[in-house]
Recover the amino acids of this structure.
């Protein structure tokens, strides 16, 4: 009876399409799960994500779980994660991708998972980094350490999605810094973020991380635009 009343006043809806969930569905409805545009890049040895960084920064391996399309269900998922506070989405996507990456040799050497950070003002306003739970779950799957105390965002910027490439690059250039580099020296780092657009944010973060000695950087994101 309590469960019925709870669903009556606080109905469970799909984070992708907002339709009511059945008792057998959790967070995302069956239809949306089947329609999610999964890339399978890491299984197919596809270098689509790696190509984004050619000639810009050295990346060992790179993948994205989903393809991002404007007004698509992936955009709705990430919107609900970032602006509606549904951190469960990050956890769900992290568990999903983490379980896949642990079966791929290229990612079994990951030592440390590091999230792209938020500026302290935005973190205070939002209350959480939308990439945190995503990264934590991947770290668990890879038996790696999750560290969010090395890469720091020092300058606040506006949302990068759908800006022109040059504008995005100018926005993120030299707005990150690194501390406690001893924690990552000699390590294979997996840098995680929500969306890759131009790759400017990942490039800027990688340039900062490369100030540490003898590191390797790979990349994993929720989606690629």
């Amino acid at each position: 009876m309590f469960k019925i009343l709870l669903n009556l006043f606080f109905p469970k809806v799909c984070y992708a399409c907002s339709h009511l969930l059945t008792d057998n569905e959790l967070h995302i409805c069956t239809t949306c799960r089947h329609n999610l545009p999964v890339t399978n890049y890491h299984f197919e040895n596809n270098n689509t994500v790696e190509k984004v960084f050619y000639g810009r920064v050295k990346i060992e391996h790179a993948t994205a779980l989903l393809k991002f399309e404007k007004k698509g269900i992936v955009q709705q998922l990430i919107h609900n994660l970032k602006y509606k506070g549904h951190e469960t989405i990050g956890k769900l996507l992290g568990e999903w991708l983490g379980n896949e990456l642990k079966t791929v040799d290229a990612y079994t050497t990951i030592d440390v998972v590091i999230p792209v950070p938020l500026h302290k003002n935005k973190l205070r306003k939002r209350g959480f980094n939308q990439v945190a739970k995503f990264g934590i779950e991947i770290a668990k799957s890879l038996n790696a350490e999750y560290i969010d105390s090395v890469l720091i965002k020092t300058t606040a910027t506006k949302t990068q999605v759908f800006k022109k490439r040059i504008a995005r690059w100018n926005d993120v250039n030299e707005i990150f810094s690194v501390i406690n580099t001893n924690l990552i020296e000699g390590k294979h780092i997996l840098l995680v973020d929500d969306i890759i657009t131009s790759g400017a944010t990942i490039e800027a973060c990688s340039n900062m991380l490369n100030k540490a000695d003898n590191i390797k950087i790979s990349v994993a994101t929720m989606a690629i635009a």
